[in-house]
Design brief:
Elements (H helix, E strand, L loop, with lengths): L4 E3 L3 H7 L32 E8 L14 E5 L2 E2 L2 E8 L12 H10 L3 E6 L6 H18 L5 E6 L2 E2 L8 H9 L8 H5 L11 H8 L3 H14 L1 H7 L2 H37 L6 E7 L8 H13 L2 E7 L11 E2 L2 E5 L9 H10 L3 E2 L5 H13 E7 L10 E8 L5 E4 L2 E3 L10 E3 L2
Parallel strand pairs: 6-7, 6-9, 9-10, 10-13
Antiparallel strand pairs: 1-18, 2-14, 2-16, 3-4, 3-15, 5-14, 7-8, 11-12, 15-17
Helix pairs in contact: 1-9, 3-4, 3-12, 6-9, 7-8, 7-9, 9-10, 10-11
Length: 432
Amino acid sequence: MRPKTRLLLSCGVACVLLSSLLNPRVQGQGQNPPAAPSQQPTFRSTTALVQVDAIILDKQDRFVPGIKMEDLELFEDGKRQNIRQFYMVTNELGQRKELADNEDIKKDAEYSAHRVFVLLFDEGHLANDSIQRVKRGAEEFVRDQMGPGDAGGIYVDGAMFRSLLTTDKQQLLAGVHAVKPAFDTRQSILAPFREWPRIDSEVDAYRIANGAREVTDQLGVKACQEEPQSCQAEGGLGEVENKIQQKARLYVRQAQMLTDQTIKNLQTVCHGLARIPGRKTVVFMTEGFFVEDSRSILQKIAGEAARGGVTIYSIDGRGNINGMSANPDVTRRERGRSTLFDTGEDGPNILTAGTGGLMIRNIDDMSRAFGLIVRDTSTYYVIGYEPDNATMDGKFRKIEVKAKTAGLRVRARKGYTATVLPPQEVLWGSVK
């Protein structure tokens, strides 16, 4: 029988996670969280041990149970490492017999079977239709797909809703309902691109803003050829080119501001969650964002998140964005919304690939999108090893996990930033 559990959301954890907020609060299954039992699960996620979550799939993309430590190889920066810890975490009661016999490892696995989800709404990069779409999906996720032992939080408008992580679904639903469209969004600042004189892509705007005169000249000539009367009314080719430059610079400046806020939100969430042992899941709902000046910092966020056990999943709020979709492309009134005109998907891809998550796109049914994340976080393996290079020097280290059996595919984080973990605070304690 599955042991009864109590959620222990200590004020210390909440204060770290929500350090930017005044009067942080916590919320468990009751108003006053109980004191922790005298014996807590033993976690070895210290500076000496690096943990990697791994999902092992067969050729039909089905999870493969029964994998043993000797079935895998792990490499750090190309050098084979000695695996010292290995176990499976599962929310499926029927598979609990697969857990390790070692009592300490079993406690870790039981603890990790309780999931932590933070739903991060990237309002500045979600158009109104996308906001409504992901809100419906988030509501269904909270109501129908979160388990009784799962904790969650809603990060909205640059802060954690009501300053809490909670198992209370009504609190979580209230957080989802509080999500509102931003006044300025990426779609709104891209909208002038389709107005004459047009800029064909976000990349062109970035190049123009950084002095690429040949791009300005090309777009100016094209605009005057397409609409000679408008060109003459504007004052000629020179004035048209000036207008193109102004439009490009304005877009880049606004886009960078939106991206800066997104990066700040991601950093706040990931740094806070690093205090909690085990795997934590961030569901990042966005349409993508301007990344041309931010690739290195996103890679750093992903590396630090991976070290702290945070896995980022990205859901594209636009839903189905192929040519058959009814969702409009901001740069073409007559087309279904396209991703060819920009590099917005690069940011979510850096975050998800770097932490071992998934980028979910081209799905209108947000309940299905969340369902893929629930399935992905339900059963996985945890691999622990002590790096040969034990110095936490702040540098990025590449990880590769390989299965020795042919036909098996391993999905795990690509690496981590070698930093010392903050003090760990458990959320749950077992009660017989």
